[in-house]
From TrEMBL:
This is Regulatory GntR family protein. Gene3D superfamilies: Winged helix-like DNA-binding domain superfamily/Winged helix DNA-binding domain (1.10.10.10). Residues 9-77 form the HTH gntR-type domain. The keyword Transferase does not apply. It comes from the Bacteria. Keywords: DNA-binding, Transcription, Transcription regulation.
């Protein structure tokens, strides 16, 4: 996986994300070594400094440690959904209410356009029995 030029994130972040997914996979266990910098350079086609920055990110997250002469070792798997912005039930309800309001407004506008085209009086949308 070479960093995606259309992705606005810096290459080191893309590489860190790819390595994070690799660490989370069943291919790697705690205690395993990550590929060497030379292997990572071949895989990602990036400078050592960029790769070091990606590894720094994983070290700061506590996923890996690096030891001189030993390489980079996985010490922890990423937690499921770490960093994901999963909305709470309350936030989901607020989003649903905003969508519902926009759909109601759109429905009224469509009815007005249809009435104008057909030369009739726009019908008021009937409230759903589920809203009550």
């Amino acid at each position: 996986m070479r960093p995606d030029a259309t992705d606005r994130r810096p290459a080191y972040q893309q590489i860190a994300d790819d390595l994070r997914h690799y660490i989370a996979s069943d291919e790697v266990e705690v205690g395993d070594k990550l590929p060497s910098l030379t292997e990572l350079q071949t895989k990602y086609g990036r400078a050592v400094m960029t790769l070091q920055k990606a590894l720094d990110q994983l070290r700061n997250e506590g996923l890996v440690i690096s030891r001189q002469g030993e390489g980079t070792i996985v010490v922890k798997k990423p937690e499921a959904h770490a960093g994901d912005d999963v909305p709470s039930p309350h936030e989901l309800r607020q989003m649903f209410d905003r969508i519902n309001t926009v759909l109601d407004d759109l429905s009224r506008r469509v009815a007005a356009v249809e009435a104008e085209i057909l030369g009739t009086t726009p019908a008021e949308p009937q409230p759903d029995s589920a809203d009550h």
